[in-house]
Amino acid sequence: MLLDKSRTYHDPIHGAITLNGSDRTEALLIKLIDTPEFQRLRRIHQLDIAYFTFHGAEGSRFTHSLGVMALTRRAFEAITIKYPYLEIHRTVVLVAALLHDLGHGAYSHASEEVFGSNHEIWTLRLIKFGKIAEVLNRFSPNLVDDLAKLFTKKYPVPFVYQLISSQIDCDRLDYLERDSYFTGAKYGQLDLDRILLALRFDPISQSLVIGRKGIVAIEHYLTVRYFMYLQVYNHAKNLAARFVLEKIFHRAKALITANLAPNQIFADRTITAWLTQDPQTLTCEEYLASDDIVFAYHIQRWRDSEDAILADLCRRFLNRDLFHAKEISHLDDVQQQEQLDTWYAKLQSQGLDPKYYCGIRVSRTKGYSIYRQGINIQTEQGLQDIARLSPLVQAITHQIQRAWLVHP
Q1: Is residue 381 within 8 Å of 252, Cβ to Cβ?
Q2: Which of 308, 315, 307 is nearest to 265 (CA)?
Q3: How far apart are CA 128 and CA 132, in angstroms?
Q4: What is the value of pTM for the model shown?
Q5: Pick from 141, 67, 139: which is nearest to 100 by CA?
Q6: Distance CA 35, CA 384 (A)
Q7: For the chain, first and last CA: distance in Å?
Q8: Domains of the chain as residue ranges with CATH
Q9: What is the pLDDT of residues 7-38, one digit of tens each?
Q10: 263 exposed, middle or buried (CB, 10 Å; 0-12, 13-18, 19+)?
């Protein structure tokens, strides 16, 4: 397994991420990065189709995954200086950090909205398949099982999975800082060094906690996360773009299931499988064959379809001739439906099928909430949830829900 050769990835967020080939665990990480399954993440946008709104949002799941691994390594190594007995968990936590997004489908979270796939379920399946499984099993016959326990939060030491999935984990730290950088959203910038210094291990609960002096850094992190959801992830134009993407594939599915002629709906084996099956029932080969390039190629082909609706939706998507998203949160349910009915009538009068051209979408901006375990602060009175200690965190515990009417 030892490669005896280092590998360096120059990252815009974390600088040089170097893996030491003479270190058995880091040699394993290099092997995993070089698998076809992991290289596929280069072809999946981190922020799905947010590039329509933020033109710099071109980063990939590949770069994010490397970043999470780099942050996890920093956090883990800092804590094991004081608690060296945790060192036995180093391999599983670094591998999990690297592979945590392995199961993402094309267009990341957008495909989960459109097709109903679940990247966490697929990550569990894919670590047991193909070259990834071969590399993991060659390293240790127990590693796949340990990873499955970590991803399902059944690992015996909670601290290990909380570094990757909790209210204050390295996954969130990386995507907030990275997404802020690529979208140009200055309010999304974090003080990563101060946050990492605040991370602690509680030997009694064996959990990830925060030192008392780290409250301000965590308050800043939670505020950043709140505004990134409000202003970036749930931006009205992102909703409109996802709406068009969803309608493209709904129309394509209607055509392909009607067994129409190929000049109306071209689809290769991969897209045919995605359009005609529950994505959770796809084979691993079918799932791995999908990426942003495959989906985008079909949208390019469908722009010339003889089906007027499919061709128009694809043209709009490719040319960024997107729909308008009008906020209707101030209206009650009856009034919102009246607005939608008005647009249905207007579109029908123009000879357009309204179910493909308008609809209501709801965005939810996440506040701070207990996520199996909240963010616990070390105090003289023992561990206390940060919401009890911080008026600022208390103010952002409520979820904001906004409704949008999407139409041409």
Answers
A1: no
A2: 307
A3: 7
A4: 0.95
A5: 67
A6: 43
A7: 56
A8: 7-184 (1.10.3210.10), 238-364 (1.20.1250.30)
A9: 999 999 999 999 999 999 999 999 999 999 99
A10: exposed
